[in-house]
Design a protein that fits this description.
The complex is a heterodimer. By secondary structure, chain A is mainly alpha-helical. In chain A, 40% of the residues lie in helices and 6% in strands. Chain A has helices at residues 18-22, 42-61; strands at residues 4-5, 16-17. Chain A has a two-stranded antiparallel ribbon with strand order 1-2. The longest helix of chain A is centred in the C-terminal third of the chain and has 20 residues, at 42-61. By secondary structure, chain B is α/β, with parallel strands linked by helices. Chain B has a domain at 89-222 and 261-321: Spore Coat Polysaccharide Biosynthesis Protein SpsA, Chain A, CATH 3.90.550. Chain B has helices spanning 8-37, 44-72, 101-116, 135-152, 169-181, 199-211, 230-241, 243-254, 269-275, 294-304, 326-342, 354-385, 408-435, 444-478, 497-521, 526-537, 539-546, 558-561, 565-582, 588-594, and strands at residues 89-96, 123-130, 158-162, 187-190, 196-197, 215-219, 223-224, 265-268, 308-311, 318-320. The longest helix of chain B has 35 residues, at 444-478. Chain B starts with 7 loop residues before the first helix and ends with a helix. Classes of the chains: A mainly alpha, B alpha/beta.
């Protein structure tokens, strides 16, 4: 990151390094890791929910 | 303003309709085949083949049902465009990975100029997030970033950073940016390196997400542009002509849970940060480790957290590029295959919306389906090979023969039905395009019909080749081979015959062996298998031929005649930069001054 440039937005006399220009601002934001692994007992719960989600539509069709 | 969310009733009806129709079609196909197979008595192979036909037909019927839903579901009332001040700050994220920086940064210059041309006061910044591993390309990225800054006066609103390690690949790249800089903005437009979006489309996306506080992700339907080869033009035509209908059907079933395709979408950064931190999956790659196909997972996680994920297919001015030849397509598909199969570990993730789970299952099925067809073919050959000679005189001392019940018409009917499920949706989309006058942009009635039929013929020819590549990918993943993260090839796509032979000769041998084996073991099936076997034998030739430049009239799309303004801008920047780069004594500084 040792390229030196002049931009149109800056006076010609002032030289800045590209590294100064390109770094995104420091503005941290927490991003917690999500839980994606299932407990063994959740299979039946998941199937039940899937059934409940589809059942109203099937009833309507019937 | 309302969230403009799909209503729960409509979504439930669409899902039930699609499931019921596809399961009924699959059950009918399975039963017809069972009757056909049981003509000489029910055997294990008959039951196996009926089961395989059931699942194969379900997958085809699911695609057809999606198309029918897309054709019949009304487009949601377009969201009224608003014109008030935009309060939120937006960053356009461009992740890059060993891409050609000149072309990518010219895209950013074009999009920035297009946004400025809207004369809105919205704050829209750009961040190039480099995961490039090649130091030479990384140096060029800095060079072209300097050019970009100078041209667009981008200081303070255009950023570039390169990670030392590309942990988590694209998802990790974005996550690192969000955790270190995300609080500086409210919304992020996530792009791919080959994405292009009109400025007013980006502004409209910002307005829509700002107007709907529960909306976390708004996906556009990108159109493929820039294709030049026969394969690329065919894919581009299919994406422009058929995909909007399929996408509308998909959106009808997904409702509030998606879809998200990883790019050309806007997200609410706070929702994203709260919900989309992806963990590493336990175990080694390919099933463990970083989540490869992260977009489906992110959509599922946003929906799990109660956010709305929406596809607005009325938004135009969203573009991407596609693979230009079968090999590049297969390379990308290898990555997607591994990513989708990896979702098997996530189907039971806690508290996901049921439909998000079903979306994972669909993704897995898309890659398992070719193996089911292969298994069906193998079982059919085995069934003929082991079939017992019919006993024409089952009764002793009875002089007249008893012939088995001929069920051939049922087999032919089933084949026609399966073929219909493949072809019918595309023909219906063509009819719809004619009646809605959408066909005008695709060469008119005659031109679009010709293109539809040619695309059908071409896709039928290359389907066995793609099936071979897909099957190999699935087997590789199941055997534990990690495909890694090969960079996309965004060149002109032309292949010479030796490259095509190197990539496809194994398919030729496989096809030839299959045909010979069939002829020896079950000669009655040889004719049936020719549509699959012959294209496989000719795979290198087809791979080479489809990578050649297409004729000017082949597969017309609206962008051929009306070049989108953003493409014109992009070409203008590229031309200006090419002239500057070819100037004598060109240096980064001098070129930056030229802008």
């Amino acid at each position: 990151m040792n390229v030196t440039i002049q931009t149109g937005a800056k006076p010609a006399a002032k030289q800045i390094t590209l590294a100064d220009l390109m770094a995104p601002p420091c503005a941290a934001l927490a991003m917690p890791k999500q839980v994606l692994t299932a407990s063994p007992g959740s299979l039946m719960r998941s199937l039940r929910r899937l059934l409940w989600a589809v059942a109203p539509g099937l009833r309507r069709l019937g | 303003m309302a969230q403009n969310a799909p209503t729960r009733d409509r979504t439930v009806s669409a899902r039930a309709l699609a499931i019921a129709a596809s399961v009924l079609a699959a059950a009918a196909a399975g039963m017809v085949f069972q009757i056909y197979g049981a003509a000489d008595g029910v055997g294990f192979l008959d039951v196996l083949r009926s089961t395989l036909i059931f699942f194969s037909t379900w997958w085809l019927a699911w695609g057809a049902a999606t198309a029918l839903l897309g054709l019949t579901s009304r487009q949601r009332n377009p969201v009224a465009r608003t014109s008030g001040a935009i309060l939120g700050r937006t960053v356009v994220i461009v992740p890059v990975y060993n891409e050609d920086p000149r072309i990518t940064f010219a895209r950013i210059a074009a999009m920035d100029a297009s946004i400025q041309a809207t004369h809105t006061s919205a704050q829209v910044d750009f961040a190039v997030l480099s995961d490039t591993r090649d130091d030479k390309i990384a140096l060029q990225e800095q060079h072209w970033f300097a050019r970009l800054l100078a041209r667009q006066h981008g200081e303070g609103r255009m950023f570039y950073r390169r990670r030392e390690k590309n942990t988590g690949r694209k998802a990790g790249n974005i996550e690192e940016f969000i955790t270190s800089s995300g609080a500086a903005w409210d919304y992020a437009v996530i792009l791919d390196a080959d994405s292009l979006m009109e400025g007013d489309t980006i502004i409209e996306m910002i307005r829509r997400i700002e107007a709907a506080p529960k909306l976390a992700l708004l996906q556009t339907l990108p159109r493929v542009v820039g294709a030049t080869t026969r394969f690329g033009r065919a894919m581009q035509f299919a994406a422009g002509f058929h995909s909007p209908i399929f996408a509308r059907g998909l959106a009808a079933t997904q409702g509030r849970t998606g879809p998200f395709w990883g790019h050309n979408a806007i997200v609410r950064i706070r929702a994203w940060a709260e919900s989309c931190g992806l963990p590493e999956l336990p175990g080694p790659a390919p099933f463990g480790g970083h989540i490869m196909s992260h977009d489906y997972v992110e959509a599922a996680l946003l929906a799990r957290a109660g956010w709305l994920v929406r596809l607005d297919d009325d938004l135009e001015g969203s573009y991407e590029e596609g693979p230009e030849n079968i090999i590049d397509h297969a390379k990308r598909d290898r990555r997607w295959c591994q990513g989708n199969l990896q979702h098997a570990k996530l189907v039971l993730a806690p508290s996901l919306k049921p439909w998000s789970r079903f979306v994972f299952v669909q993704g897995i099925f898309a890659y398992v389906a070719p193996l089911i067809w292969l298994a069906f073919i193998a079982a059919s050959i085995a069934a003929v090979y082991w079939v017992e000679t019919p006993d024409y005189f089952p009764e002793a001392n009875w002089p007249f023969p008893t012939f088995p019940n001929d069920q051939t018409p049922k087999a032919i009917g089933l084949a026609v039905g399966v073929f219909g499920l493949l072809v019918m949706p595309k023909l219906l989309v063509a009819l719809d395009a004619i009646f809605t006058r959408r066909a005008r942009g695709f060469g008119g009635i005659g031109g679009s019909l010709r293109a539809v039929l040619t695309e059908l013929a071409l896709s039928s020819l290359i389907a066995p080749i793609l099936m071979a590549f897909q099957s190999r990918s699935v087997l590789q993943v199941l055997l534990g081979r990690d495909g890694g993260w090969p960079p996309n090839n965004r060149g002109d796509g032309g292949l010479d015959i030796s490259e095509a032979w190197a990539a496809g000769s194994w398919i030729s041998w496989l096809g030839l062996s299959g045909l010979i084996a069939t002829h020896l073991m079950a000669p009655v099936l040889t004719l049936w298998l020719l549509p699959v076997g012959l294209p496989m034998v000719a795979a290198p030739l087809l791979i080479w031929w489809t990578s050649r430049i297409a004729g000017p009239q082949a597969f017309p799309v609206p962008e051929d005649t009306t070049i989108p303004p953003i493409l014109t801008r992009h070409n203008a920047v590229l031309t200006a930069w090419s002239i500057a780069a070819s100037a004598p004594n060109a240096t980064p500084l001098a070129e930056a001054k030229l802008g």
